[in-house]
Amino acid sequence: MRHGEAYVASLRDGRAVFLDGAPVDDVTVHPAFRGAIARIAAVYDRARDAARNGDLTSADPLTGERVSNMWLIPKSADDLRARRRLHRFWAEGSYGLMGRTPDHVASFITGFAASRDVFDRAGQRYGDHVVRFYERARREDLYLTYVIVPPQVDRSKPAHQQPVRDVYPTVVKERDDGIVLRGAQMIGTSAVIADGILLTYIVPLEPGDEDHAISVFLPCNAPGLRLYPRRPYATMATSVYDYPLSSRFDETDSLVVLRDVFVPWEHVFVYRDVRLVNAQFFETGSHLLGNFQALVRFVLKLQFAAGLAKRLADLHNIASLPPVQAHLGGEIAAYVTAMAAIVDGAESAPWMRGALARPNPQFVYAGMCLQRRWVVDLMRALREVAGGAFLSVPSSDRSFTSPETGADTRQYYQSAGVAAEERIKLVKLMWDFVGTEFAGRQLQYEMFYSAARHVVDARAFRFFDWAESQRLVEACLAEYDLPGHDGGVKG
Question: Tell me: the pLDDT tens digits for 387-396?
């Protein structure tokens, strides 16, 4: 398994990252990215240490060496439980705030490899490419991300009818040794700090889109590949004390631009096949495995939020008040418990397709529907617990150290039996969770990381057990009739 130091060193590979119009020479030391990189490296090291007891690993079927369970192909509920422990371990490293930790896209690649027959439809070599890449990623413990959404140019038109030429990722040349791509793709969450990118489409393609119908792996330092991150929150943080989350857990989101990027055939999983691009996520187990990870992470994030609310209520000496207990129970604790139960259901009642145990889609898609709603309610609930506390804080940590303001700061920002430094530390942590630009991005991510609301809701409709619900209705209707028809009540 991977050392954190080896992960950091791998990022010094000449990748083309541009921030504020200028190239970034070394992402590992740049203030925009070094905090998140350090956290990922630390979790890699902890995972390696934890692997000694076998709880987060399994044997590589090819070499017998211990490999992370993020690459485990689940064949039972027990295997899903093992994956859940691994996902929770990684989520704890960022308190659920980093959505694209290495185990997320690893889940998608694992789902691809477990259903290679889907890729074999275009020819056995494509299934071979998927399996061989999966085996390499498992062996090297790679950190992968993906870009699967095209730029928002004209969503009313399919890819081949876009008004700007080659704006979507496009095959512009086929060579004996591979293909050449041009265009751009969103939203490269963690692309700056990952090893490589799965580039494909999750939005449906149409006949005529063949030049865009691809699924490929790109190393982040591929010649011609450029990364344009959004404004990083870490560079806005004045200190870790003032911005404890923004400064350490901003995984960044980037536009990925392809300037005639060459892809060797062995890294091509789907080529000019509209049906296969549309099938790769949902006819394999990848979409369910990837979003199972997202729900496990979200449960931990909810638990973290619950801990913030209870800690502040304790500091303000209001946790014993019945209205506060009702608020914490009904607005926060109930959500945590319900989402954890959904994950339990997805894990305990797997959807067997061949030898692959997929997390139960009825629970996964129901959880995703509720996730985007509950995160809004959660943010509101935390704001209500804090009240005016968010608006009455010193401007920065220097208020404590300045001889001009230190005494007043300690005197007037303290709480019942709690020093001002400790109370403000918690309040600033909560504000970074719900109120800063980092917090706003967190909200947007949870609401839209998977798809627009109507798309997620439609999946929940598709996989709900309507037959059993309708059976109950039909049984009830069959028990009675109009007076005079068969005697009214039957049975």
Answer: 999 999 999 9
